[in-house]
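Checklist before submission:
- one chain only
- standard amino acids only
- sequence pasted in full

Submission:
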Amino acid sequence: MRHQFRARHRKGYGIHSPFVFYFVREVMYERYPFYGFATIQAVREMLQRSRQKINIKSIGAPSVYPAKEKTIRQLVKEGSMPARYGELLFRIIVWQSCQNIVELGTGTGIGSLYLSLPDSRSKVTTIEGNEELCHVASHVFENAGVSNVRVLNGKIDEVLPGFLKESGDVDFVLFDGDHQYEKTLQYFEMCLARCHNNTVLVFDDIHWSPEMEKAWIEIVNHPEVSVSIDLFRMGIVFLKKECTRQHYLVRY
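Returned file contents:
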């Protein structure tokens, strides 16, 4: 609620940056139903009917999955990327023509579909610490006919450095695998080494806890960050040197 009172710039009103104005008006509030949306919705509905149980091993912040065991339908309901935000990620990837995409935290794989379906020629690498969820996600990709996603199983801080060493520059990173302050900043710094002027960084659940809010504030104030957009659920970061440094609270 606090964000709704403080947030401004709905549909671009009051934004002086041409880059951010275009992003808000033409990307955030674009309502064109891309072909992949129906596919992802069908997968979501399929998973919402699944009563298969998954052993939850706490690898990130423990309260993300407080129970030891949950059904897939519970995981989808409680933790999967909502369609509204997933579709925004889809549109960002199309807009910026992102090809080398990284996701930290695979879950059931719904979020990965929003990253992979914009362009079948892109390469999406997703890292998940729970082996059972890796298997679930792999089946999701197979059923959706997606072949451009690689799932890496393991702790992010152990897998990510090796991946980045051989990955080349990354175009898009979704941080959704660990909701702890130090880990979030650690992964951010790791990825910065492989970022370029047009890389887009998205942080999910930035107001989920005081730790996440603290991490988000530090990321926003990082010297390499030029534009940051707070949508309350998620934060979007741009590194474009040609943009005047500015932080925006936008209603979405």
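Reviewer check: Residues 2-249 form a domain with the Rossmann fold fold (CATH 3.40.50.150).
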